[in-house]
Specification:
This protein is α+β, with helices and mostly antiparallel strands and 175 residues long. The protein is built from four helices and four strands. The longest helix is centred in the N-terminal third of the chain and has 29 residues, at 16-44. The protein is globular, with a radius of gyration of 20 Å.
Length: 175
């Protein structure tokens, strides 16, 4: 049985571009929100400025030339292009995987969060030469490295990937 206008597509299913489109729209929303917050902090804060909000949380403006936890941040600048390239390759691979796994919403959401975060940080590297970070959690003398909304997307996506795999592993195999 075919769908409306006899497109040859079985009713109840949509072509892959339409299915992947919603995931790409979510990734785009993450990118836009990430970039808007970075523009705000870049224009309203001076580098290193901190605004105290809670006993364990501040807004601050810092730059990261490296990767997570400032990995390779002290290098001469080649890491900018390495991490930009890795982010671009990850975006292409994730998009291809999203097209092939549209029937797994939890898995697709995880990939979408990672995709939006990766592209958000790639934009920073291309435009500024570093990633703009502004969220700072701390306790007494200890502090977690500052991060941004793109990093939140990547981290939540990674956690969701692990959760998805654990839940999938617990399901009995289909006969």
């Amino acid at each position: 049985m075919t769908g409306p206008a006899d497109t040859g597509i079985p009713s109840g299913s949509r072509p892959a571009p339409a299915r992947v489109g919603r995931w790409l729209a979510i990734a785009l929303a993450i990118i836009v929100l990430d970039q808007l917050t970075k523009i705000y902090f870049n224009t309203e804060f001076q580098y290193g400025q901190r605004v105290h909000l809670l006993p364990f949380f501040d807004f601050t403006l810092v730059y990261n030339r490296g990767a997570a936890f400032s990995f390779l941040a002290s290098e001469e600048g080649w890491q900018r292009w390495l991490f930009t390239g890795l982010g671009c390759v990850a975006a292409v691979v994730i998009t291809v995987i999203l097209r092939r796994t549209h029937g797994q919403p939890r898995f697709c959401l995880a990939l979408t969060l990672i995709l939006g975060g990766a592209i958000g940080n790639v934009i920073d590297r291309v435009v500024y030469g570093h990633v703009v970070d502004f969220l700072l959690f701390y306790w007494n003398d200890w502090q977690f490295p500052a991060f941004n909304l793109a990093d939140v997307g990547i981290t939540c996506g990674a956690v969701l990937l692990v959760l998805d795999e654990l839940l999938r592993a617990r399901k009995p195999p289909r006969a």
